[in-house]
């Protein structure tokens, strides 16, 4: 299979340093397709292998790609406290069905500095009994940070789970002013 996607689409990637550790950003011509936490060597390689399998082409490191440069810039601005909303094209091809509906609602309807409960988000997509399924959708989010699954919390005030680890979720919520800055 070629890097240009003989059987799929071209996928480019870069690693960005952030306040929560290295993030792998990957994009296609349709937009940002994946954000991966803790993108050290082993994690990065597994993520790139999964992308190649799911998208049908070998991802190519290209931080200057026009598909990726704006995403890198906006993520850096977010962590520097200069951006609250992402204005990026997103490639939703890694997620479908109920999970995609939930994540699109989350991206559009839960602004910076606010949180929503799992059950509330389930109601917003017309499935009021699906709070656990919303949790599963958060865990399947291929675009964390940009599609802010860290803003989904338990109704009793707990922060809930998080694919990037609870400390990462605490740091993101602190960055947005929802929680006090964590003590390290």
UniProtKB/TrEMBL annotation:
Domain named Methylguanine DNA methyltransferase ribonuclease-like: residues: 11-91
EC number(s) from the headed UniProt entry: 2.1.1.63
Keyword Membrane (UniProt): yes
Class of this enzyme: transferase
InterPro entries attached to this UniProt entry: MethylDNA_cys_MeTrfase_AS, MethylDNA_cys_MeTrfase_DNA-bd, MethylDNA_cys_MeTrfase_DNAb, MethylG_MeTrfase_N, MGMT, MGMT_N_sf, WH-like_DNA-bd_sf
Locations listed in the record: Cytoplasm
Superkingdom of origin organism: Bacteria
Transmembrane regions: 12-37
Keyword check for Lipoprotein: no
Record-level GO cellular component terms: cytoplasm
Segments forming domain Methylated-DNA-[protein]-cysteine S-methyltransferase DNA binding: 98-178
Principal subcellular localisation of the protein: cytoplasm
MF (Gene Ontology): DNA binding; metal ion binding; methylated-DNA-[protein]-cysteine S-methyltransferase activity
GO BP annotations listed: DNA alkylation repair; methylation
Keywords tagged on the record: Cytoplasm, DNA damage, DNA repair, DNA-binding, Membrane, Metal-binding, Methyltransferase, Phosphoprotein, Transferase, Transmembrane, Transmembrane helix, Zinc
Cofactor: Zn(2+)
Catalyzed reaction equations: a 6-O-methyl-2'-deoxyguanosine in DNA + L-cysteinyl-[protein] = S-methyl-L-cysteinyl-[protein] + a 2'-deoxyguanosine in DNA; a 4-O-methyl-thymidine in DNA + L-cysteinyl-[protein] = a thymidine in DNA + S-methyl-L-cysteinyl-[protein]
Function of the molecule: Involved in the cellular defense against the biological effects of O6-methylguanine (O6-MeG) and O4-methylthymine (O4-MeT) in DNA. Repairs the methylated nucleobase in DNA by stoichiometrically transferring the methyl group to a cysteine residue in the enzyme. This is a suicide reaction: the enzyme is irreversibly inactivated.
HAMAP family for this protein: OGT (MF_00772)
Leftover remarks: This enzyme catalyzes only one turnover and therefore is not strictly catalytic. According to one definition, an enzyme is a biocatalyst that acts repeatedly and over many reaction cycles.
Similarity comment text for this entry: Belongs to the MGMT family.
The protein, known as: Methylated-DNA--protein-cysteine methyltransferase
């Amino acid at each position: 299979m070629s890097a240009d996607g003989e059987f799929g689409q071209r996928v480019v990637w870069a690693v960005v340093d952030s306040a929560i550790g290295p993030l792998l950003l990957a994009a296609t011509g349709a937009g940002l397709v994946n954000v991966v936490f803790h993108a050290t060597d082993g994690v990065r390689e597994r993520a790139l292998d999964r992308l190649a399998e799911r998208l049908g082409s070998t991802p190519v490191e290209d931080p200057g790609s026009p598909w990726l440069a704006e995403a890198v810039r906006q993520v850096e601005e977010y962590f520097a406290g200069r951006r609250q909303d992402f204005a990026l094209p997103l490639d939703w091809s890694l997620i479908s069905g109920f999970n995609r509906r939930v994540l699109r609602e989350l991206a559009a309807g839960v602004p910076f500095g606010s949180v929503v409960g799992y059950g509330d988000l389930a109601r917003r997509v017309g499935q009021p009994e699906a709070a656990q399924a919303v949790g599963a959708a958060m865990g399947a989010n291929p675009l964390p940070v940009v599609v802010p699954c860290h803003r989904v919390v338990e109704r009793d005030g707990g922060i809930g789970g998080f694919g990037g680890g609870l400390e990462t979720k605490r740091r993101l919520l602190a960055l947005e002013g929802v929680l006090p800055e964590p003590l390290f």
